[in-house]
Structure formats: structure tokens, C-alpha cells
Amino acid sequence: MKLDPRTKLFLAIVANCVILSAPPVYSALMFAVPAVLLLFEKKWRFVLAFFSVYLASAIGFEYLKTMDVGMAGTLVVSTMMIVSHMMPITIVLYYVMMSTKVNEFMAGMSRMHMPNKITIPLAVMIRFFPTVFDEARDIGNAMHMRGIRLFSLRTMKNPLTILEYRLIPLLVSLTKIGDELSVAATTRGLSPETRRSCVTTIGFHVQDVIVFVYCVAVVVCLLCDVNPLSVILEEGP
Questions:
Q1: Rounded distance, CA 44 to CA 49, Å?
Q2: What is the number of helices (H) and of strands (E) in the chain?
Q3: Residues 97, 109: Cα–Cα separation, whole Å
Q4: In the predicted model, what is the mean pLDDT of the chain?
Q5: pTM of the predicted structure, to 2 decimals
């Protein structure tokens, strides 16, 4: 199920605003949207892993937040709170960046009459983060082939080796990636002064309307202080 890039941008904005300012039930509602969309993209393993960690963190935080768990327990509860709040945002942004091509994003921004000074940095960012993740995975595979693992006895004895084997190669690659993306943008004629044409076809469809109506319904419930879970339970058999 393919969404218009403008719908994805609307979903990302609404999800961030709702998740950061609403009770956990609204976070779960917004979490469901990218999870379902990722299932259509056949990312069920990723969704299952994310959902398991999110559910465990959310339930653990709600259960332990009122208990006296000591200093170590407070750190664990704080970590659960951060994870339960950040994972819905993370999965929304992951879906947007994973499923949106740069030319589709540029076409959507052009339809919205956004200036190039805003569009070009966002387009580079969309291309930058997936490239970084791919580079980090390749570095990890290279270290694994040499017998160097992240949680091995060797790294446990000397944690600074992680800097040498993982972070330093990644930082060097980040500089190279930034230069390559800048050259690619220049080659494709991206600049704030020029108007860019695009042959990509975009448009709103039924799935876009469904996502839009769902997001608006969640925002209305939040503004009206209505708990969707209690409404569902009251209307149940």
C-alpha cells in the first residue's frame, strides 16, 4: 500500500505532536499506523521486534512507575519511559524514510509550493540516514568476518575497541557520504535558485484518505479529552 509523500509528511507531523504530548494510549494508536503500513511492505520481522520491545517497555513503565525500586530501578524505569515514548516516533520516521524516494518527496514538496531552501535539506536528510544505516551494517559485517563482535569477550574486556572497530570507520564514512550526497545534488541540478521539474507521478488515493481521517480522529479525541480505549470498551458486547 503506497501513500502519497504529502500524506507521509502529515502522518509524521501528527504522530510526533501526539506522541510527545498525549497519554500512552494515543502513542499506541499512532504506533499502529506505521506498523500496519510496514506489514504491507513485508517488514513483519521488524514490526514484531519493535512491537515486542515497545509493549514490554510500556507495560513495565506503567507497572513500575509508582513503586519504590531504588536507584538502579529508577534508571531502568526511566529507560523504559524513554523507549516507550521514542519508539513510536522512531517507527514513524523509519517508515517515512524507508518508503519515500527522493524524487517523490521533491514532487510532493513542489506540489505544496515549498521553497527549495527547505526542500533540498530535507531531501538530503531522507537520503542520508538510510545510507548511514547501510554503511553501519556493512561495517558490522566486515568486523564479523574478521571475528570481531560487538558483545564478544574481547570487547567486554576492552570497551574502547568499539571506538576503533565501529565508530571511527563509521565517522570516516559519514564524511564521505556527505560529500557524495552534495556532489549528487549538484549533478542533478538541485539548487535554491533553480526550479526543478519531475516526471514522478504522485496523487491521493483511498489509502491516503483513510490515514488522513484516522490521524484527524486521533487528534480530535485528544483535543476533546476522550479516551478511545474506554469508548471501545463501553461500546463492546
A1: 9
A2: 11, 0
A3: 15
A4: 78
A5: 0.74
